């Protein structure tokens, strides 16, 4: 341990602060999340506008800085429309169930080390638990109930499909996300966020556990329901998804929950893999006081906004994936890979504890992982070719016309003689009356 490192607050020290300090921390966390949402909205619009060679918001305030605040005021003043057939109790509670867990999740994120506030020594963290990381997973699972119930209570097929998609996506990616944390718990020896940051004093876990970091980055995109994984909304096929029937403040709460989850996921990635509030490598070695006082808050914010920029970058460059590709990535790629990586990490640590040479162990493990990866890619390529061969014979009927039901989901035949009780018009026939000749003559 470095003797010049700042003191860490043990778990027993949390909860012993005076009431005014705890209340102040709650207000600071709440204000930080709200301001971060407004800043993220402005940054996202400006950055994507620059990427797509167009002008972003530049009217509300200098450089458009007040555009997010203007949007919030607009949503608050809009008419709150509630459809007639909805389940009103669930319809009203669903946005609350989506927004409240998003705020609670940030309570266990450490902003910095122990500092002095009005003469009282306290950690820059609202609270901590022996299973603090599991609290984030629990809150994200609770937040998905708000999305599912919003789709169910809206009495709309588009909303219902959006809610079902969201629940399936959460199950697929939250399991892989939880598995990516296991290796971190093994190295840190704890699930407490403050102790995980303390365990990265010498080397960040992004270097030691790079595969876990990659899995987490992919799953955090799936958990945030943003492009390329924004299938619960799917404007092209579901109008707006689970919040199609929502307006005014209820829609604003879903909007707020999405951006707060974006901040929480970025802060959790910073805490687990990027050393938390610790300064980057060149700064921490040159400057002895970089990890003490209030300076760590600056490093923490820089890391968070770099992750948020990464989210924005992906939204501005990647298209939406298909739903079957989303499920395949979660169940057939991320979960098996995470399980294999956990077994490998556990084996390496057990062998190191028994006194084996770590260099040979790492080399053998890298060769074995490369062989498994290459074999998996070859197997997928072979399987993909076999699937195409199986679909090919039934892809066309006699006469060269494609069969729409071949190799996929059944669809209504295009040449059915009747459709909903009406005779089908022959090909090329128009259902609109032909305009008079004098009208057509006058249009030329």
Topology of this protein?
Layout: H1 19-51, H2 67-77, H3 88-105, E1 112-117, E2 120-124, H4 132-153, H5 157-188, H6 193-199, H7 205-208, H8 210-223, H9 235-238, H10 248-273, H11 281-286, H12 295-317, H13 323-353, H14 358-391, E3 418-419, E4 422-423, H15 437-443
Antiparallel strand pairs: 1-2, 3-4
Q: Could you give the count of β-strands?
A: 4
Q: What is the rounded Rg?
A: 27 Å
The residue-averaged pLDDT reads: 78
Strand content: under 5%
Number of helices: 15
Secondary-structure element pattern, one letter each: HHHEEHHHHHHHHHHHEEH
Low-confidence stretches: 1-7, 391-398, 416-425, 427-432, 438-444
Shape: globular
Given the helix and strand composition, which structural class is it? Answer: mainly alpha
Q: Taking strands numbered 1, 2, ... along the chain, how are they ordered across the largest sheet? A: 1-2
Main beta sheet: 2 strands, antiparallel
Distance between the termini: 86 Å
Helicity level, as a percent range?
A: 55-70%
Word description of this protein:
The chain is mostly helical. The chain has a domain at 83-339. It has helices at 19-51, 67-77, 88-105, 132-153, 157-188, 193-199, 205-208, 210-223, 235-238, 248-273, 281-286, 295-317, 323-353, 358-391, 437-443; strands at 112-117, 120-124, 418-419, 422-423. A hairpin with a 2-residue loop joins strand 1 and strand 2. Helix 5 crosses helix 6 (193-199), helix 8 runs antiparallel to helix 10 (248-273) and helix 8 (210-223) packs antiparallel against helix 13 (323-353). The longest helix has 34 residues, at 358-391. The protein is globular.
């Amino acid at each position: 341990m470095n003797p010049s490192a700042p003191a860490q607050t043990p778990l027993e020290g949390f909860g012993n602060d005076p009431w005014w300090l705890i209340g102040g921390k709650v207000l600071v966390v709440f204000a930080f999340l709200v301001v971060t949402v407004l800043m993220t909205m402005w940054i996202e619009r400006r950055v994507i506008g620059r990427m797509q060679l167009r002008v972003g918001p530049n009217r509300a305030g200098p450089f458009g800085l007040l555009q997010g605040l203007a949007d919030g005021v607009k949503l608050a003043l809009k008419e709150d429309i509630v459809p007639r057939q909805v389940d009103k109790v669930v319809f009203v509670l669903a946005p609350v169930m989506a927004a409240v867990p998003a705020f609670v999740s940030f309570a266990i994120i450490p902003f910095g080390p122990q500092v002095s506030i009005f003469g009282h020594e306290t950690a820059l963290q609202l609270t901590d638990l022996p299973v603090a990381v599991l609290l984030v997973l629990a809150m994200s699972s609770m937040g998905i109930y708000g999305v599912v119930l919003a789709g169910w209570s809206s009495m709309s097929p588009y909303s219902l499909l959006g809610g079902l998609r969201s629940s399936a996506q959460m199950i697929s990616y939250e399991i892989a996300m939880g598995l990516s944390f296991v290796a971190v718990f093994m190295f840190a020896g704890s699930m407490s966020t403050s102790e995980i940051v303390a365990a990265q004093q010498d080397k960040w876990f992004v270097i030691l556990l790079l595969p876990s970091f990659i899995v987490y980055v992919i799953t955090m995109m799936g958990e945030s329901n943003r492009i390329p994984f924004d299938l619960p909304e799917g404007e092209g096929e579901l109008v707006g998804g689970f919040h199609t029937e929502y307006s005014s403040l209820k829609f604003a709460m879903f909007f707020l929950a999405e951006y707060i989850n974006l901040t929480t996921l970025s802060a959790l990635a910073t805490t687990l893999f990027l050393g938390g509030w610790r300064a980057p490598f060149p700064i921490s070695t040159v400057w002895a006081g970089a990890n003490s006082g209030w300076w760590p808050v600056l490093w923490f914010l820089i890391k968070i906004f770099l992750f948020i920029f990464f989210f924005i970058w992906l939204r501005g460059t990647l298209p939406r994936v298909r739903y079957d590709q989303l499920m395949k990535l979660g169940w057939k790629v991320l979960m098996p890979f995470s399980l294999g990586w956990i077994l490998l990490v556990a084996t390496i640590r057990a062998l190191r504890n028994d006194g084996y040479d770590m260099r040979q162990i790492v080399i053998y493990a890298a060769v074995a992982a490369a062989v498994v990866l290459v074999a998996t890619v070859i197997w997928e390529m072979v399987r993909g070719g076999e699937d195409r061969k199986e679909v090919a014979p039934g892809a066309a009927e006699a006469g060269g016309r494609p069969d729409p039901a071949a190799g996929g989901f059944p669809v209504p035949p295009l040449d059915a003689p009747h459709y909903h009780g009406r005779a089908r018009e022959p090909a090329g026939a128009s259902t609109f009356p032909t305009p008079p000749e004098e009208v057509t003559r006058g249009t030329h």
